[in-house]
Amino acid sequence: MILALRALGVGDLATGVPALRALRAAYPNEELALVAPRWLTPLVELVGGVDRLVEADGLGHLPWSGPKPALAVDLHGRGPQSHRMLAETQPQRMLAFTNVEAGHHHGPLWRDDEHEVDRWCRLLAWYGIPADRTDLALRRPGPGALPTGVSIIHPGAKGAERRWPPARFAAVARELTARGHRMVVSGSAAERGIAEEVAHAAGLPPEAVLAGRTGLGELAALVAHARLVVAGDTGIGHLATAYGTPSVLLFGPVSPALWGPPPDRPGHQALWVGPRPPGDSSAVHPALAELAVPAVLAAVERVGRAVQLL
């Protein structure tokens, strides 16, 4: 059995897809178990190739009663916690980045300046397992009762520093509506308030607010059949990349060179002004604060032209 650890969120799982697929291809006859949060189950099913999910919401003790894995793979981090979590299962072999503190002396060195997709592909390549960094696509679910061909505004994000001001999202939604886009506003149940604020300011009807009304699988289906996604640096942007749905993503504080869509995909625009100046402690990251509505609308136009040329 192969046991892979990736107990993080939507974007983390999406960027780990090429590595998971590489493990599946390298060990076609072994059971592949993924250690991840249970709420990610709908997305894990869209990855394919994972035989079962072992529930873990972050790092800590892993209640493991199964046999010793033939192979444990740390796709979570550099250690030592993640390394030790997997080591508790007493695997015959572990693939991970070198971490002396965890007692793991075999493996490549961690690099802070590496794109998240490339990081895990490089880890496996070091151990002789080839991985295709472009293998990011997820299975496309049917839309069901969800609207299709809509343009999605997703104003929420985990951290306040990653959130573009709601008034600017509303201005983009209002202008895109005038250009013929059918707009909806997505988000989690906790983000419904900000989604309603954006919709109201944009002049959108209440039924355009889908925040809190879609589970993870439904959100994936919504993105898969959408016309456009406009969002910050959060999970829905990775879904847009996975489905080839045109997107404009607003980055800050992390550079898109580390977490953004691959540069060889012209249907996606990642906007980033630059790193936070020394001593700056503003709630919204300066890279986002400096992004004006016209710049985002111009990126939407560039994405539209690129898609038409494909």
Topology record:
Elements: E1 2-5, H1 10-15, H2 17-26, E2 32-36, H3 41-47, E3 52-55, E4 71-74, H4 81-87, E5 94-95, H5 116-126, E6 151-154, H6 166-178, E7 183-185, H7 192-202, H8 216-224, E8 228-232, H9 235-243, E9 247-250, H10 256-259, E10 268-271, H11 286-289, H12 293-309
Parallel strand pairs: 1-2, 1-4, 2-3, 4-5, 6-7, 6-8, 8-9, 9-10
Helix pairs in contact: 2-5, 6-7, 6-12, 8-9
Question: Please, could you describe this protein's structure?
Answer:
The protein is α/β, with parallel strands linked by helices and 310 residues long. The protein has 2 domains: 2-126, Rossmann fold (3-Layer(aba) Sandwich), CATH 3.40.50; 151-309, Glycogen Phosphorylase B (Rossmann fold, 3-Layer(aba) Sandwich), CATH 3.40.50. 35% of the residues lie in helices and 13% in strands. It has 12 helices and 10 strands. The chain has a 5-stranded parallel sheet, sandwiched between helices. Strands 7-6-8-9-10 form a 5-stranded parallel sheet, with helices on both faces. Helix 9 (235-243) links the parallel strand 8 (228-232) and strand 9. The chain starts with a strand and ends with a helix.
What best-fitting shape do the alpha-carbon axes yield? elongated
Helix content: 25-40%
CATH topology of the largest domain: Rossmann fold
**What topology, given as strand order, has the largest sheet?**
3-2-1-4-5
Tally the beta strands. Answer: 10
Rg estimate, integer Å: 20 Å
What brief labels describe this structure?
10 strands, alpha/beta, 2 domains, single chain, Rossmann fold, 5-stranded parallel beta sheet, 310 residues, elongated
